[in-house]
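User: Some background: our group keeps a shared notebook of sequences we're curious about, and every so often someone picks one and asks for a predicted structure to add to the entry. Today it's my turn. The entry only has the sequence so far, pasted here. Could you supply the structure so I can complete it?
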Amino acid sequence: MAEFTEEPFKSDDLVTQTAYDSFGIKYLYPWQRLVVANILEAYECQKHIDEFKEFDNDSFCKGRQIVLLPTGAGKSLCFQIPALLLDGPTLIIYPLLALMSDQQRRMEEGSLRSVTFRGGQSDEERRENFRKLKEGAQIILANPEVLQSEELLQQLCKIGIKHIAIDEAHCVSEWGDSFRPAYLGLGKVIQSINPPMITAFTATASPKVLDRVAEILFNGEAHVVRSDSDRPNIHYYVRYASAKKKEALILAKTEKRPMIIFCGTRDKAEDMAQELNVCFGPGTSRFYHAGLEKAEKEVTEKWFYESKDGILCATCAYGMGVDKKNIKTVVHIEASPTAEAYIQEAGRGGRDGSVAKAILIWSLEDSLNYSVYEKGSREAAMREFAETTDCRRQVLLDALGAEQAVCSGCDLCNARAAAREIESFKGIQKILYRRSLKGQRHVSDWEETYSIIKRSKNAYSEQEIEDELFERMNKESLKILGVKSWTHGDTVEVIKQLKDSGKIEQDEFLWKGKLRAKKKKTDS
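Assistant: Of course. Here's the predicted structure to add to the notebook entry:
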């Protein structure tokens, strides 16, 4: 029998053939094709600009564009493929040094030659970079800070950069006005180099952020390319809890791994990892934050990348550019500051196309903290997401100014679907089904406590309800985790949040010192 040999891949389309030859990819998504076409057409227009005098060049050639692609959509190809086809280097601006290092490693594994400019380099390292560029290196990697060097900028202006790509462009708005002022200087960098094409890429941006990005980078004029903002394979859930670490332990036991648990501070990330290792055994979890040394980060990144069931406790320092495909669950112990940041971080899950859960742990304290933001603001969207009774997915899409979407999965829409299914049952089947659902319903620690106090008003002092809650929650913890994980400090936090939120109060008269559910203003 003749041996079968696969025919070599051939395409009449230069872009498709380049994608296959360099990256082994036979097919580009429509949005990738559109962005690549805009870049290449803009370059051709600039080369033959005299032929297009009658047109507004920026709008006609689309050489100044902001591209919104969801996480995992392959935006890197949108600037890597043109870099192989242009007759001059591409400058890519990244927000994080770790991301630059990771991208350079990936490019070197393929067929792209690249150089990196960062702070702290010697004159010899800089000279070596420019030597490589003269020999044909196609990509320059840099961060906003290093580009503020006038000397470096002048040298870059002389090498004929054809395309500037700004990755994670929402950082221009998120960070430029706060702790990364170098982002505000990118407009000057662009004007100095004045390349034929500039493309700003982001996965998440509300209309307000888009306007700010366009203002800083493009003097307010930019062509926007927006794909579907929704990631249908990300299913959104909210769990209500005051003792958040205890809730995270339960999720670590009951939800699929690999898992990321996003924590608000470095200390919380370290503490959460320690609790997981105590509960489930050493090696279950590691932590990651900006305070680690480079070597420590690399060891942790390698461990998590290769892990099939590990749990990484991280700050937002691990949020951008992560390329681990098989993350099944993304937990947030603290809510992200904005809807954009939450979508970005939740989007670390399911990059292989499989279903992944994004679970936000929301407390009464969170509700109070986020209530100070003006309704309709980017920050207030997180409270609306956590407390809506409609569709959580649509709240996020609305915050981005995006389209209406049929929900592919959130806890609220799932519950409504289950309720409709109940209604389709009759008689004993309906009763049994209701009972099964009731047994599955998650009750938060503060709901449990509030219910006890409401049913037994004036029966418990603060110390007595703390002791009662300590016993109950440890009984539940022992059943689920196999250990008693609750401390008295956890029960104190639950009571404190109930009091601060105005749900319970202490009697000062007949039942002095006893707790009761606080009456609403509408109660008689």
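Suggested note for the entry: The longest strand covers residues 234-240. The chain has 22 helices and 15 strands.
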